[in-house]
Amino acid sequence: MQSVQSKLKKGQKIVVQKNGDLKVPEHPIIPFIEGDGTGPDIWKAAVRVFDGAVEIAYGGQRSIVWKEVYAGEKANKLCGSWLPDDTVKDIAEYIVAIKGPLTTPVGGGFRSVNVALRQKLDLYACVRPVKYFEGVPSPMKRPQDIDMVVFRENTEDVYAGYEWQVGTKEGAKVIDFLNKKMGCQIREDSGIGIKPMSEFGSKRLIRRAIRYAIDHRRSSVTLVHKGNIMKYTEGAFKEWGYELAKTEFREQVLTEAEVAEKYGGVVPKDKVLVKDRIADAMFQQVLLRPSEYSVLAMPNLNGDYMSDALAAQIGGLGIAPGGNIGDKAAVFEATHGTAPKYANQDKVNPSSLILSGVMMLEHMGWGEASALIEGALSKTIKRKIVTYDFARQMEGATVVKCSDFADEVIGGM
Ligand code: NAP
Q: What are the E-state strand segments in 9-48?
């Protein structure tokens, strides 16, 4: 057996080039966090799928050199910290990483390890593709009509928010200031919250969404907001989005007004339609007319609701992957939690982590390997070979363990 050290010696670093594209060597070092609770179960299964796909796709010419880094309970036990500095440093250095779910510490000095990681590495876009795999139990009549990618702002809005509790000195001071100096009329027994949303933060998220739509030949980008009520935060998000689309992507995009005025309401094939919808209406749209939406750009809080609601439409978080992406680093992750009651039982569904790996491979430009995994996972589910969570909602399913599911996916490549 090769030692971890000698394996790492063979590995090389991924680098970000001047134009922002990644330069990926043949044997990149990729840090991983196995996660808490069921994290080790799904990691063990998923990593075999990743290695198998890379081996088959590139005939041994390429491989991933995995480097374990610690966060969560394991880190706390080994290093006395829920998120050691070395972990953040390693991810910043190696650019691309993947993680399982982490326990949210109770009174551990962090609101959430996940949020801390995103903030420290400035991973400003939470990207969630939502696509239906045939055979997955879904509450929708036509789940196959759903094929969206949500770009949710990951650093501002309520994530950068401030709150003051009712009855505190600070809360009273804020209310006094607002009532006396700013002409507000706030009841004294109120809790107060502030949500900042900047032009810089909004535009870089929307820029990434539009660029993705152009690169992946997606039909539209929808700016989803609650700007009818919160005009200078959510409303500004929409305005900044249109402004950015028209200044930075003028040749590639059209707005709905432009399409109506100049193209008789029909979007030319080579253009991306940029539109906006108010958040409450949008929650109806994704249920009633999902095929009309492709890429969504959303502020933090509304994007949070929408990502999980959409995941439910295609079968739940067990199969929804995610990526947290910044200009310098990216961390891909299972979107569900640690499901601690099933820990070490080799039972839960590894699909969310496997599909997060698919996103990671695509991000690295290793499309052949990612396509192999996606195809094989889809085939396995279609054959009704699934873990307990899907099996309990499917007729005639074969229930397999987490590790057996991975074997079936590998066998199907
Ligand atoms: P959870 O871990 O997602 O589990 C809730 C339920 O969802 C499970 O009991 C199970 O349902 C189902 N489930 C979750 N993952 C599954 C999988 N891979 N396969 C099949 N079923 C799965 O949510 P939680 O219990 O609220 O949270 C537990 C811990 O995880 C908390 O500390 C929380 O803060 C943390 N968390 C972390 C992340 C993250 O790291 N990104 C995200 C969310 C929560 P059944 O019991 O019905 O089978």
A: 15-16, 22-23, 29-33
Token output for 298: 């959303």
pLDDT at 289: 96
User: What is the reported pLDDT for 137?
Assistant: 87
Question: What are the residues whose beta carbons fall under 8 Å from the beta carbon of 72, sequence distance 6 or more?
Answer: 33, 35, 36, 39, 82, 102, 103, 113
The pLDDT of residue 319: 87
pTM equals 0.93
In ligand 1, the atom with minimum distance to the C-alpha of 336 is 3
Percent of the chain with pLDDT strictly greater than 90: 88
Separation of CA 404 from chain center: 26
Distance from the CA of 114 to the center of ligand 1, in angstroms? 14
Phi, psi of 224 (to 5 degrees): -105, 130
d(CA 144, CA 129): 14
The residue whose CA has the least distance to atom 18 of ligand 1 is 349
Looking at ligand 1, which residue's alpha carbon is closest to its atom 16? Answer: 318
DSSP states of 194-208: E----HHHHHHHHHH
Residue of the CA atom closest to atom 46 of ligand 1: 339
Q: How many other CB atoms are found less than 10 A from the CB of residue 339? A: 21
Residue 346 CB neighbours (<10 A): 19
Question: 287-341 pLDDT, tens per residue?
Answer: 999 999 999 999 999 999 999 999 999 988 788 899 999 999 999 999 999 999 9
> Does residue 4 have a pLDDT over 90?
no
348 lines ligand 1 (CB under 6 A): yes
| Residue 79 C-alpha from the chain's centroid | 28
Reply yes or no on whether the pLDDT at 1 is more than 60. Answer: no
Q: Which of the residues are catalytic?
A: 159, 226, 280, 304
Task: Report how far residue 362's alpha carbon sits from residue 357's, in angstroms, rounded to the nearest whole number.
Answer: 9
372, 315 in Cβ contact below 8 A?
Answer: no
Q: Per-residue confidence at 107, pLDDT binned at 50, 70, 90? A: low
Element (H, E) at 128: strand 125-131
308-313 contacts at long range (C-beta below 8 A, 24 or more positions apart): 309/283, 310/128, 310/130, 310/146, 310/148, 310/150, 310/286, 311/128, 311/130, 311/335, 312/139, 313/130, 313/138, 313/139, 313/140, 313/143, 313/146, 313/286, 313/287
Task: Read off the DSSP letter of residue 12.
Answer: B
Identify whether the C-beta of residue 63 lies closer than 8 Å to the C-beta of residue 49. no
pLDDT at position 109 is 62
